């Protein structure tokens, strides 16, 4: 019998009726002969409520609460509740289910509370229970340090828990049940002709997740890629039997027979463009700018230094997450004299649109198609960045949907067979 | 430095503002030089919500969920949340606080899930933290089995957790902060002249708790008595400084200088009177009746066999909790032929009123005063039961308040100095 990991997100655990539906899906896989481990999120909204309480407790004296191990004690409780409820429901359907909390498995993590990383999952207890025919329910998002303190992985960490458990027990696959029925060529709310992908490679999924597709958490994709755990994303709003051959499988590129040149169009509005005007055109100046930003933990995404005004001065342009824009601008102003630039401009009305596809490696003209499609719609490209399998452009935010639809059509994504 | 245990109930943990007030009370005791361990309940209402969810999960197929270890996984989460929030609040006030969950302490319990009993609390971890100057916050109501499964103690179990922690760390006292400001001579809602007792003996408190006073859970008083842990009951709706010399101390009888003959009047409406008419007056018949009830886990309180109809037949009268009345009556009817009685009567319009006091041991005429006071008000006594330090009477429920007030006056309880 093969082992299978199934993961249910917050909307799939939102109330008892949804928990019962999840239980039916789990039971069906057990009936089909799988040894099943289930990873669950907290009821949707519950984690937000718990976090708000910790904010309130933390604000008693105005001090920060980040990295507080007591934050994890509070917030980890949400998944404990749904895990117990799912186990009870399965038992009442006649299945032998058992909850194993983070400290019981154990899921050993680093001690960076609130943002811990999974270090190790000794598989013995999980395997013993699975081999004894038990359905093991594990709360996602939580773990325990070597010294026995509860940790949480940071928001969205339940996907990562599921993949890590799948790797630990050598599961044939990790099925992520969520509120969408798979990975699409782009967001169907923007392009109604978006098609569900039957398969996508780890590398493409990783780019898509990083570039704004919210289907899977980036870290979970990294882990699946590193551990070679096939992941299937599919809808939890189905009954047993309806989930056969559904969803999108995220797997090794080698296992994808019909490769697309471009698999998807991703976009993100969480962008801000910062321009430093009149920067001395000297060695080390750019390095100084980005060193300051790195020290302040501000992530810089796209960088371009192109608009020279004269031989001695250049303009330095970079993008950061929109929520970091003010902090980045304030930081730059505080070192204006030290670095020596004339002025700073912050533009939050920008969006990043990207095309992703492993086929780019072997096909030429992909970028040309992109630029032409955007040009035909009168969309100005402000910044370009590329990797081996993606091209991103920064554009005026107002053109986001237009750009997405234009690119979706240009690469024939509306004709991909699901 | 002496060790002190402080316990806060659900109303004292109901929201962040109340948690902050509890934190101020804890901080004040730490400032006064105590090494403090705190035991907390879940936010009021939270446990009911969690239990309702487990009921829902359990009802998926209509099966019972009692004794389900997954019930405990779900329900124990409520105290985990308040423990973490209180620790965070204390930290933000500048105190070194740490939560230790049931499995971290560990609080070792039996494996009767949902109704576990504390077996052992190895004090090493608690003592190490306390001696290092940490305020240790322990969620009440929860523990862990020897095999590492989460347990809960049953409703009201947080008082018991607090007393057990106090015994484990040899605390000078266990302060139970609750929504009343002490133990009263009777319920102030019934008799406005009720007075707060400065001290009450363990034995009296145990009788009061068993007889319907809801201030402390019976099991916690038993434990405090067995372990000789002084308990103080006081209001959590005070600010630091206001709690000095407040509340009621439950302690050894020897430590009470000014002993009262009667310390309190307790009453319970959770009573039902069952009469079996025309029972054969033979050896073994009564034993058969009570054996049947015991097998069905129905607790019998008062028993009297007095109303003989003739030499061969008697009427057997006993009382049970009102919620057990129907089950007891149905059970008796099912064995009517076997035991051989004529008819059964069930009366749910009864109440039990009791006087409690260690002074009864050495004073005569206490019962006489009770019967006379009730007689003067025209209250008929249906059944009487006594122990060394209490006398209980069963009366028509309609006379409950009248009886309580009459007895309160008859023993001069309105003149006790708090």
Description:
The structure is a homodimer. Chain A has about 425 residues and is α/β, with parallel strands linked by helices. Chain A folds into 2 domains: about 5-180 and about 215-255, Carbamate kinase; about 270-345, 2-Layer Sandwich (Alpha-Beta Plaits). Chain A is about 35% helix and about 25% strand. Chain A is built from 13 helices and 20 strands. Chain A has helices spanning about 15-30, 45-60, 70-75, 75-90, 125-130, 155-170, 200-210, 220-225, 285-295, 325-335, 335-340, 365-375, 400-410, and strands spanning about 5-10, 35-40, 95-100, 110, 120, 135-140, 140-145, 150, 175-180, 200, 230-235, 250, 265-270, 270-280, 300-305, 315-320, 345, 350-355, 385, 390-395. An 8-stranded mixed β-sheet of chain A has the order 3-6-2-1-9-11-12-10, with helices on both faces. In chain A, α1 (about 15-30) crosses α4, α6 packs parallel to α8 (about 220-225) and α7 runs antiparallel to α8 (about 220-225). Chain A is globular, with a radius of gyration of 24 Å. Residues about 60-65 of chain A have low confidence and may be disordered. At the A-B interface, α1, α2, α3, α4 and β3 of A face α1, α2, α3, α4 and β3 of B. Chains A, B: InterPro entries: AceGlu_kinase-like_sf, ACT-like_dom_sf, ACT_Aspartokinase, ACT_dom, AKii-LysC-BS, Asp/Glu/Uridylate_kinase, Asp_kin_monofn, Asp_kinase. Chains A, B: Its EC number is 2.7.2.4. Chains A, B: Keywords: Amino-acid biosynthesis, ATP-binding, Kinase, Lysine biosynthesis, Nucleotide-binding, Transferase.
């Amino acid at each position: 019998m093969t082992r299978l990991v199934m993961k249910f997100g917050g909307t799939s655990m939102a109330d008892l009726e949804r928990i019962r539906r999840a239980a039916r899906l789990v039971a069906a896989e057990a009936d089909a002969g799988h040894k099943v481990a289930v990873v669950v999120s907290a009821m949707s909204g519950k984690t937000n409520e718990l976090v708000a309480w910790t904010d309130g407790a933390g604000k008693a004296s105005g001090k920060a609460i980040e990295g507080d191990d007591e934050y994890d004690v509070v917030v980890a409780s949400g998944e404990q509740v749904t895990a117990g409820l799912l186990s009870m429901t399965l038992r009442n359907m006649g299945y032998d289910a058992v909850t194993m909390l983070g400290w019981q498995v154990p899921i050993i993590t680093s001690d960076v509370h609130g943002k811990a990383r999974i270090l190790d999952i000794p598989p013995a207890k999980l395997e013993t229970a699975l081999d004894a025919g038990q359905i093991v329910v594990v709360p996602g998002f939580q773990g325990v340090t070597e010294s026995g303190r509860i940790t949480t992985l940071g928001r969205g960490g339940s996907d990562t828990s599921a993949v890590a458990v799948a790797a630990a027990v050598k599961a044939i696959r990790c099925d992520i049940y969520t509120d969408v029925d798979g990975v699409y060529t782009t967001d169907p709310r923007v392009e109604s002709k978006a098609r569900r992908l039957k398969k996508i490679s780890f590398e493409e999924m990783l780019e898509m997740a990083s570039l704004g597709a919210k289907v899977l958490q980036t870290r979970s994709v990294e882990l699946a890629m590193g551990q070679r755990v096939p992941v299937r994303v599919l809808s939890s709003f189905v009954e047993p039997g309806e989930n056969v051959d559904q969803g999108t499988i995220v797997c090794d590129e080698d296992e994808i027979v019909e490769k697309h040149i471009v698999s998807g169009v991703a976009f993100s509005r969480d962008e801000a463009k910062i321009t430093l005007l009149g920067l001395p055109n000297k060695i080390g100046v750019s390095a100084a700018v980005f060193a300051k930003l790195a020290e302040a933990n501000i992530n810089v995404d796209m960088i371009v230094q192109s608009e020279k005004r004269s031989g001695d001065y250049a303009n330095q342009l970079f993008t950061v997450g929109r929520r970091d824009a003010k902090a980045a601008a304030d930081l730059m102003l505080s070192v204006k004299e030290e670095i020596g630039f004339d002025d700073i401009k912050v533009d939050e009305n920008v969006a990043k649109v990207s095309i992703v596809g492993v086929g780019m490696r072997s096909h030429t003209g992909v970028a040309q198609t992109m630029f032409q499609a955007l040009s035909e719609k009168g969309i100005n490209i402000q910044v370009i960045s590329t990797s081996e399998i993606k091209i991103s452009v920064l554009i005026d935010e107002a053109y986001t949907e237009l750009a997405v639809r234009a690119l979706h059509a240009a690469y024939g994504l509306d004709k991909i067979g699901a």
